[in-house]
Amino acid sequence: RFMQIVFKSFKKVCESRNDTASSAYLDDLAGRLSAAAEARAWEKDRYIRGSYDSGALLGSASSEQCCIDILPQAFSVFAEGANDRTVLAMKTAYEKLYDDKNKLFALFTPAFGTHRKEAGYVSGYCEGFRENGGHYTHAAVWGAMALIRAGLVEEGIQALRYINPAVRASCKMLADSYRSEPYAICGDIRTNKEHLGEGGWGLYTGAAGWYCKAFLEDICGYREYGEYFTLSPALSDSFSEYSLRIERKGCVFYINARLSDSYSCTLDRKPHENRFYFDSQNHIIEITVEKGRRI
Question: Of 42, 44, 204, 275, which one has the fewest beta carbons inside 10 Å?
């Protein structure tokens, strides 16, 4: 799926340079990868992760360990968008991998244990630590982003909310087990029963970068296109409004978004299309959206 996303993205670069031959070639490759994934990796309610040299499946409901992995489900959404299969895959992932009590989104489950198959370096970690079935922050953020893009907005917002160390620190039960910095995102949180909820590998800037991107682009809906940006907020009952200040290219935009019964968009209190240009001026944007709908 990752290569499919890369080919689709680079196709746009080719189109911008009027390289129609390369664009068509990449489009064909992406299409063939998509067809192969749908034919070979789909399994009733999830996408499998891969296979061992023996042919045994990894990330399959029949797998003894790692019977579902968040990455194939999330990247199917990133590659294909929301459709019947990808939405079902994310529903399955959320049901199987999200621990609502402890607010943890596991990379996969079950973790590789004592009688483990050799699945690369991840199976060298203790159960529930880092990539061996832990709440691995990069993947947890990707899972939340995919939930939102699949239309499961409330679930995605809740998953993102508790990745925030300040939120975890504000809840005594979570803070007592977290035992990590309340001001910096960590690389993983243990799902191991003896270390449940314990943060690890602090000050993990890559995860923090993805977290900021998820909130800005997938919840606030900010998308920048050269000389302008658009807004497509994803709001829910638990996150029903936000205020955002965008300072870019000599402009300052003060943005207020909230849930409503209908869509509306104004720029400086005048009706406006959802396209805001960087014009070296200061502006106020007011936008309302309906629950469960993206612009």
Answer: 44
**SS3 assignment, position 32:** helix
User: CA 108, CA 68: separation in Å to the nearest integer?
Assistant: 6
Dihedral, 140, 143, 148, 149 alpha carbons, nearest 10 = 140
- Describe the crossing of helices 20-40 and 2-16 by its angle, rounded to 10 degrees: 160
* pTM strictly above 0.70: yes
Tokens of 209: 């970068």
C-beta of residue 179 within 8 angstroms of C-beta of residue 108? no
Give the chain's length: 295
Neighbours of 101 (CB within 10 A): 9
Spatial distance between the Cα atoms of 83 and 146, rounded to a whole number of angstroms = 12
Backbone angles phi, psi at 135, to 5 degrees: -80, 90
Inter-residue contact 252 to 228 (CB < 8 Å): no
pLDDT tens-digit series, residues 221-264: 999 999 999 999 999 999 999 999 999 999 999 999 999 999 99
